Amino acid sequence: MYSFDLLLAEHGAPVLAGIKTANLITCQRAWYPDLPQMLAAYQRAFAGRGVCFRILCACDYRFLLLVYRPARLLEDLASREARALLSRYGYPMEEGLDALLDHLSRRTADRAEFPHEIGLFLGYPVEDVRGFIEQRGKGCKLTGYWKVYGDVQAAGRLFRQYDRCRDAARGYIERGMTILELFAA
Predict the structure, then answer these.
(1) Which of 92, 157, 162, 178 has its CA 20 to 30 A from that of 171?
(2) How much is the pLDDT for 1?
(3) Nearest in space to 15 (alpha carbons), one of 166, 174, 128
(4) Residues of the chain with pLDDT under 50
(5) pLDDT digits over 57-101, tens only?
(6) CB neighbour list of residue 46: distance below 8 Å, 6 or more residues apart
């Protein structure tokens, strides 16, 4: 079992450091049964840093946690291409970020089909999200934090930057720092 701070370092460090829009973290309910209550403290601690925490869905076995930067997410979703893609899946584009996240939560909880447009909420390039959906995950040029159908060089640079951030954060947490000391102090 990971401590929650190590889990956040492992899967959320680039978001907490401000170099990525958002990330999803699967939290085993058996390991973090009080996650909703824990998140209230993290939400307060990170509020001044422009970071939010939201449980997108929960089942008997896990929570799917979105760690995100609302201002950056709104920018990412504002492009004409992103808006057009999200509109295809019924997102209420004129109702604000909370309504978009509510819709994403409902689509994530619906077990019939995973919402692959979720990549837009995670800061993936629109061409990569569209490519993944259209190609059904096949024929990508590079696989890393996501499947790349567009600019391989730019994605590779980002992947390496995310890896360095994650590795540094994990190292600090393993040496005894807390995630709050590392990113919210």
Answers:
(1) 157
(2) 58
(3) 166
(4) none
(5) 988 889 999 999 999 999 999 999 999 999 999 999 999 999 999
(6) 16, 52, 53, 183, 184
CA 68, CA 44: separation in Å to the nearest integer? 14
The Cα 165–Cα 96 span in angstroms is: 30
* Per-residue burial over 23-54, b = 16 or more CB atoms within 10 Å of its CB, e = otherwise: bbbebeeeebeebeeebeebeebbeeeebbbb
What distance, in Å, lies between the first and last C-alpha atoms of the chain?
26
Q: Do 22 and 68 touch, CB atoms closer than 8 A?
A: yes
Supply the Cα-derived Rg of the chain in whole angstroms.
16
Residue 115 Cα distances to 17, 49, 86, 97, 180, angstroms: 26, 28, 10, 17, 31
- Torsion angles phi and psi, residue 161, rounded to 5: -65, -45
For every residue of the chain, DSSP letters joined together read ---HHHHHHHHHHHHHTTSSSEEEEEEETTT-TTHHHHHHHHHHHHHTTT-EEEEEEE-SSEEEEEEE-HHHHHHHHTSHHHHHHHHHTT--TTS-HHHHHHHHHHHHH-TTS--TTHHHHTT--HHHHHHHHHHTT-S-SEESSSEESS-HHHHHHHHHHHHHHHHHHHHHHHTT--HIIIII-
